[in-house]
User: Fold this.
Amino acid sequence: MNKRVRMRRMVADVIDKSERIAISSHIRPDADSIGSGLALYLILKQLKKDVHYYNIDRAPFPLTELPGFDAIEYQQIYPQSFDVVILVEGGTEERSGMSNLGDYFTINIDHHATSALCCDLNWVIPDASAAGELIYELALELGIQLTRDIGFNLFAAISSDTGSFKYSNTSARALRIAAQLVKKCHFTPVEVSDVLFYSNHIEKVRMIQRVLSTLELHLNQKVAMIDFRREFLRRLALKDIETEDVISIARSIRGVEVTLFFKEIGDNYYRISIRSRGEVSSQEVAKVFKGGGHTHAAGFFYRGNIEAAKLEILDVIREQLK
Ligand SMILES: [Mn+2]
Assistant:
């Protein structure tokens, strides 16, 4: 039996034996973490568990439209008592924003190769395209009825993390699971797309317009860079920007192998997202700056001048392109 199946059985076994269960996603949650968390919440409800879904950060629109979203509560898990705490892509206190996790029996369900293995059970499968794949397999293991809302959330999770089945993590398994969800769960892919990809506010598109105006190309046009400056938020009702859309426009440029997105989050303080294809590993670049992620998607924080950051990062990428 492979690790993926063995761990799935162990996780199902703990759930079977548990009564009070808490779920949490990571801070600044994305569609996979929220869709997977909501699906898991609905699965555990169906099993008549006393389940709570606690997060620290409220997910932005349009994730607020996912079925069951209002069930999420915003508070620490500690000091309430639970038989098990399940962390969806948030296996550490830092990543989940939850304190005192050492006081609980914890399960980490994740597909990031860099996921910390510090929970009591770590079901970490880097081959999985999304945490949603693992929750789907867990649902089968637990023998629950796949409802529309569970299917909708899991499809949203997988379709988001695979970039609508475009990224390199789009596997036969991801497609097969997506097909099974559509077949069994009475929703259509277009309903999910309408929520995730076709409900942009005009303000968001205006924001993308501003961010794209910063586009620079380097290293024989193989590296694209875009900046999000805090001043862009002035005069807009938006509080934040969903980075993935604007990154995907930059990375769509023919010949671009690496896309860097610099998000200004404080004075001389940036969160930098890297997307790559071809020979450059995003993860290796991020590691140099003490960040993490996958081969084709990673990120890190940088303190200092943005122009200095750009030069330093270009040096690292230049080495990898050799
Ligand atoms: Mn994910």
